[in-house]
Task: inverse folding
């Protein structure tokens, strides 16, 4: 079974440019997460989707970040415009919500460098 | 609020040494506790979990026991291998939420 797929794996852009990341979750998983991982830190949740609905976007900086999950399957995270401080790894995860526990499966991440 | 504090790295050990990585947490209610591992160039993988007090999670020779009285979930392995070199993250999921809160990670390097 394929795991969570993310692309691109690496992206280098100039500041003020836009950038987008794509995630395809594990087939059948209804919940999708985007995390931000700064160097030397643990991941922090940006947004969580249940199907098409963003149920927790309280940590998403909405002035420059946006996300969508059309049709409740794959998702795109966008930054416009990018700033130097956005350099980090962006992780996508998915899970199937069950009765008492929903294990999250992580993709390999997209490493963003803003110059 | 909810938070996780884990041992700072890097931790360097010789092969076959005993490993302990300390982790303590702050949470309301009864969170689930996890250890995730990130091997070089790979995504985060769940290593083990415990969902209630006194539960012991185990996998690949690693163990951790959910200690509510000390709010701890220390990771242990009796004999480490070079292939265990990775970054290890302690994490919790609050009982009232689906989000995972991670510690800052501990880099482990094992010398042959």
Result:
């Amino acid at each position: 079974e394929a795991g969570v797929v993310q692309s691109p794996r690496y992206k280098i852009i100039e500041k003020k440019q836009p950038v987008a990341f794509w995630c395809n979750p594990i087939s059948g998983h209804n919940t999708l997460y985007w995390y931000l991982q700064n160097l030397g830190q643990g991941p922090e949740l940006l947004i969580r989707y249940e199907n098409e609905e963003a149920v927790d976007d309280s940590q998403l900086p909405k002035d420059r970040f946006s996300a969508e999950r059309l049709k409740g399957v794959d998702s795109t995270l966008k930054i416009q415009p990018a700033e130097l401080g956005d350099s980090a790894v962006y992780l996508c995860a998915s899970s199937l919500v069950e009765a008492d526990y929903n294990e999250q499966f992580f993709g390999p991440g997209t490493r963003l460098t803003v110059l | 609020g909810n938070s996780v504090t884990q041992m700072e790295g890097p931790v360097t050990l010789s092969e076959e040494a005993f490993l302990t990585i300390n982790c303590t947490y702050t949470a309301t209610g009864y969170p689930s506790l996890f250890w995730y591992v990130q091997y070089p160039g790979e995504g985060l993988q769940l290593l083990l979990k415990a969902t209630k007090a006194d539960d012991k999670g185990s996998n690949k020779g690693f163990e951790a026991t959910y200690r509510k009285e000390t709010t701890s979930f220390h990771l242990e392995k009796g004999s480490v291998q070079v292939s265990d070199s990775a970054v290890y993250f302690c994490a919790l999921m609050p009982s009232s939420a689906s989000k995972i809160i991670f510690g800052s990670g501990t880099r482990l390097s094992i010398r042959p």
User: Anything to note?
Assistant: Chain A touches chain B at residues 3-4, 31, 33, 40-45, 48, 56, 91, 93, 95, 97, 100-109 (CB under 8 Å). Chain A has a mean pLDDT of 92. DSSP finds no helices and eleven strands in chain A.
